[in-house]
């Protein structure tokens, strides 16, 4: 379920895809009818190719040996999982289709089609943009930052919720930080049987953690000038009862 807050200043599809690819710990690979799942087995080259280190008895090696020119067509699947426990935890899925080839004891995958699916729907990512893009500069720190914010500073999350439009907080039972990137922070608004996501854009991009800290403090200062949302007032009053 979506909410009415405007979504602004978000990473482009190519950057988002590269962030998902660089941080995903596991992947599923399908090639010529062989499907295998691996954890911690892939690395990414600067131009977006994927290097897979798989066991010698992997069916993928057999597929590559039997395919014409030893390059079987393949599909790689990755999931972006929210680091904070929420309902419907997968934030995005990434599909790469292309070709596998043996390379120095591993398999090198060259993508020919990139599809990113987020809550807004699927988008085909331009290959040149994908090759040139880089992961969000906060991507590697995101899990640590979000879990710390949720676990150690729930009061700050509540203050940030004051920046959410009242209609988006209707019937809210919980507000948690879902995602952060250099352009903004996303909150998950959970209800009894539904949820929605609201993005709080930064006043300027944050290229590192110190800059992110300043941007969040700016949001908190902005929130301090607003009142406590009625929906959360009612939620707190109900909890006190």
UniProtKB/TrEMBL annotation:
Pfam families: DUF2470. Gene3D superfamilies: PNP-oxidase-like. InterPro entries: DUF2470 (IPR019595), Haem_oxidase_HugZ-like_sf (IPR037119). SUPFAM superfamilies: FMN-binding split barrel (SSF50475). It comes from the Bacteria. Residues 142-218 form the DUF2470 domain. This is DUF2470 domain-containing protein.
């Amino acid at each position: 379920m979506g909410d009415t807050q405007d979504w602004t200043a978000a990473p482009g599809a190519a950057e988002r895809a590269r962030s998902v690819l660089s941080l995903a710990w596991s992947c599923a690979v399908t090639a010529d009818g062989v499907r295998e799942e691996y954890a911690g087995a892939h690395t990414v080259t600067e131009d977006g190719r994927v290097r897979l280190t798989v066991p010698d008895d992997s069916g993928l090696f057999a597929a590559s040996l039997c395919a014409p020119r030893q390059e079987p067509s393949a599909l790689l699947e990755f999931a972006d999982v929210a680091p904070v426990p929420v309902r419907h935890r997968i934030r995005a899925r990434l599909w790469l289709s292309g070709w596998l080839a043996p390379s120095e004891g591993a398999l090198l995958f060259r993508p020919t089609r990139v599809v990113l699916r987020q809550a807004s729907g699927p988008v085909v990512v331009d290959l040149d943009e994908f090759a040139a893009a880089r992961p969000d500069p906060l991507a590697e720190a995101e899990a640590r930052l979000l879990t710390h914010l949720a676990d150690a500073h729930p009061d700050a999350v509540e203050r940030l919720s004051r920046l959410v439009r009242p209609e988006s907080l209707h019937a809210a039972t919980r507000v948690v930080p879902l995602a952060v990137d250099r352009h903004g922070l996303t909150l998950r608004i959970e209800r009894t049987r539904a949820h929605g996501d609201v993005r709080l854009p930064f006043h300027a991009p944050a290229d590192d953690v110190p800059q992110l800290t300043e941007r969040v403090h700016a949001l908190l200062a902005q929130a301090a000038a607003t009142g406590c949302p009625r929906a959360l007032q009612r939620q707190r009053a109900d909890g006190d009862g």
